[in-house]
Amino acid sequence: MTDYLRPIVQTDPARPAAALSLAGGWGWFTHVERLSRHAASQIVPADQIAPERLAPLTASRAAIAGMQMDRPRVMGILNTTPDSFSDGGRHMGAEAALAAARGMALADIIDIGGESTRPGAATVSEEEEIARTAPVIKALRAGGIMAPFSIDTRKAAVAEAALQSGAGLVNDVSGFTFDDALAPLCAARGIPVCVMHAQGDPATMQQDPTYDNVLLDVYDFLDGQIARLEAQGIARDRIIADPGIGFGKTLQHNLTLLSRLSLFHGLGVPILLGASRKGFIGTLSGVERADQRMPGSLAVALAALKHGTQIVRVHDVPETAQAIALWRAAVAGTRDG
User: Tens digits of per-residue pLDDT, 28-67?
Assistant: First the structure.
């Protein structure tokens, strides 16, 4: 790609008549930032851009896993692992997981994972990961949890067991690069997916991450993987993209991505941001304990909404839902947001 278009997103209630809606959501724009690997960025009025170039930015996003994308959505994190960076061991077993899920009543979807992907984490066997996740999904459904579930896994066998147990979306932190059987499985089952960018695997990803241009490199990876998923039978309207904050990125890499998140609307799919409690929040805030980074996590989530990000993946579901409700009302000037 020779250049890239990033909508400069606005949410002000005073909207010009010629403004374009962003992805059928709450944002709008009149200008774009034209980015290139070989030249300085330029601010260009949107009416000077060919309509076919603007189409991926303006087209409404289809509903995925029962979630309409016209308002912000919250994905609750439910780790059934002993060693996750923030809540390892707290939700292992069906009873603990059910109690945690009941505390996520305001989540639009609950993401269940049985393999830690924190920096330095080792790979877990398929059998162990299935044992940690499939029974929990069954128990949550039997316990009356009605929110849709996603399975956070890189492995086809784990995904298959989770889908049979009641999951309805596959969230792969490897961007469908770890297990060649996973994409065909999702295609055959007609299951929506989230494709994430990561440089390296969890065991090594933070040793020395480098990029030519982190923003454009991540974009190109996601663009390429979405095309590959389509070629394998997964329709674009069943795909979510995640730039992978903290996965093979330095502090500056993370901040560069966060400051220009709206670029990823050019992929033509919903954007998911998973930054909750991550290390860069601790670095910037001086808060060492991950479970005490809720205020910083809320700040990053609300900043992502300013870019039109459709889904935020968070540990603190009630607090995030409350913050989003107030953000929407304050921005729109009406209690209905």
Answer: 999 999 999 999 999 999 999 999 999 999 999 999 999 9
Helix (H) or strand (E) holding 224: helix 214-231
Q: What stretches of 180-265 adopt beta strand conformation (E)? A: 193-196, 239-242
Q: Which residue has the tokens 């020395």?
A: 208
DSSP letter for 122, please: P
pLDDT at position 313 over 60:
yes
Q: What is the pLDDT of residues 318-330, one digit of tens each?
A: 999 999 999 999 9
Strands 239-242 and 73-79: unpaired
The dihedrals phi and psi of 108, each to the nearest 5 degrees, come to -80, -25
Q: How far apart are the first and last CA of the chain?
A: 37
Q: Is 186 helix (H, G, I), strand (E, B) or coil?
A: helix
- Residues in a beta bridge with 313: 75
Predicted confidence (pLDDT) at residue 128 exceeds the cutoff of 70: yes
| 42-45 and 31-35 beta bridge pairing | antiparallel
Strand partners of residue 112: 78, 151
Identify whether the C-beta of residue 30 lies closer than 8 Å to the C-beta of residue 20. Answer: yes
Q: What 3-state class would DSSP assign to 26?
A: coil
* Sequence-ordered list of residues with C-beta below 8 angstroms from that of 208, at least 6 positions apart, any chain: none
Strand partners, 15: none
pLDDT per residue as tens digits for the range 187-246: 999 999 999 999 877 666 577 789 999 999 999 999 999 999 999 999 999 999 999 999
In CATH, which superfamily holds the domain spanning 62-332? Answer: Dihydropteroate synthase-like (3.20.20.20)
Active-site annotation, residues: 278, 313
Domain boundaries, the chain: 62-332
In degrees rounded to 5, what are phi and psi of residue 110? -115, 125
**What pLDDT is attached to residue 117?**
75
CA-based radius of gyration for the chain: 19
